[in-house]
Design a protein that fits this description.
Elements (H helix, E strand, L loop, with lengths): L2 E7 L3 H14 L5 E7 L4 H14 L2 E5 L5 H15 L4 E6 L2 E2 L4 H9 L4 E5 L8 E5 L2 E5 L10 E5 H7 L12 H10 L12 E4 L8 E2 H4 L6 H13 L6 H15 L5 H9 L11 E4 L7
Parallel strand pairs: 1-2, 1-4, 2-3, 6-10
Antiparallel strand pairs: 3-12, 4-9, 5-11, 7-8, 8-10
Helix pairs in contact: 6-9, 9-10
Length: about 290
């Protein structure tokens, strides 16, 4: 397997340095590439990131303004899918420090077609241990979701249900939406009879959330909580969107709609392309844009 790490930056250079250093230190370089999307950071951040990417053969895209989280995440996966070399799309926030051999853990988990997505447990609370095709994982409760700060999607899931539903207001709903969509894939389209989302075992793969524990940004946690509340109210990408998916899944279970119709519900997403005039610099082939 090989992963494309989809990495997004917007200032907070101190966090970015620690996060990228952990990826280099704790990840087998032959098993991943990294596509960094910068959402209009300050000049000091841009200068440092540019040199770092060239030094480590990472791909990058620098934009003149902040285009938002969902636009970045979806276009990164689209670009990676065009490159056609990657089995996994790994979304890592720029305030996450990854532990040793995390990608091996992700690959091991995703060998099972019962695992639709997997990530690090950044909630730092113990979840029920479960064995999936001989692999120990942490099972997220049925109405919960995988944390979007470290979200690894196998390519076959992406090809089945498509990108993240666009979230207009802030962030924090992409992971909840995708976790639900994975659980609502009709069994007729699954290699196995079930698919779910899981965490890697916390005791073995303990990452660090700099944004959640850092002291430099005094009001950062309050900002996160506010943005989560706001984005949850997003009509097209928050709780109402998930209610619509659940309603249609109930119709599918009751045979009011077909498996094909249910899959189309999951595929029906708002996708925002980026304005190429805002792309200041990039270092890979233009045919992938």
């Amino acid at each position: 397997m090989k992963a494309m790490i989809c990495y997004i930056t917007w200032n907070r250079l101190e966090y970015t340095k620690k996060s990228l250093a952990s990826i280099l230190k704790n990840t087998d370089r032959s098993k991943y590439d990294l596509l960094l999307w910068d959402n209009g950071s300050d000049i000091d951040s841009v200068n440092w990131i540019t040199k770092f990417c060239y030094d480590n053969d990472f791909k990058f895209m620098f934009f003149s303004k902040n285009l938002g989280l969902t636009t970045a995440m979806n276009n990164q996966m689209l670009i990676a899918s065009k490159m056609n070399n990657y089995d996994v799309f790994s979304h890592i926030a720029n305030d996450i420090v990854v532990p040793e051999n995390w990608l091996e853990g992700v690959f091991e988990a995703l060998q099972s077609k019962k695992v639709g997505a997997v990530g690090l447990n950044l909630e730092f609370t113990n979840f029920e241990k479960t064995i999936v095709d001989g692999i120990e994982l942490e099972k997220i409760h049925s109405d919960g979701n995988l944390c979007g700060a470290h979200f690894n999607i196998p390519r076959w899931i992406y090809e089945l249900i498509g990108p993240f539903q666009h979230v207009v207001l802030g962030y924090g709903q992409q992971d909840a939406n995708c976790s639900l969509e994975i659980r609502c894939i009709p069994k007729e389209f699954l290699p196995e009879q079930q698919v779910d989302v899981y965490y890697l075992p916390l005791e073995k793969y303990k990452g660090e959330d700099l944004g959640g524990t850092g002291k430099k940004y005094d009001n950062y946690q309050k900002q996160i909580e506010h943005r989560l509340r706001v984005s949850g109210s997003d009509v097209s990408g928050g709780r109402m969107y998930r209610s619509w998916v659940k309603l249609n899944y109930d119709y599918y279970l009751k045979k009011k709609i077909t498996a094909e119709q249910m899959l189309q519900v999951l595929k029906k997403k708002t996708f925002i392309s980026f304005d190429k005039s805002l792309l200041k610099e990039y270092n890979f082939g233009s045919k992938y844009l």
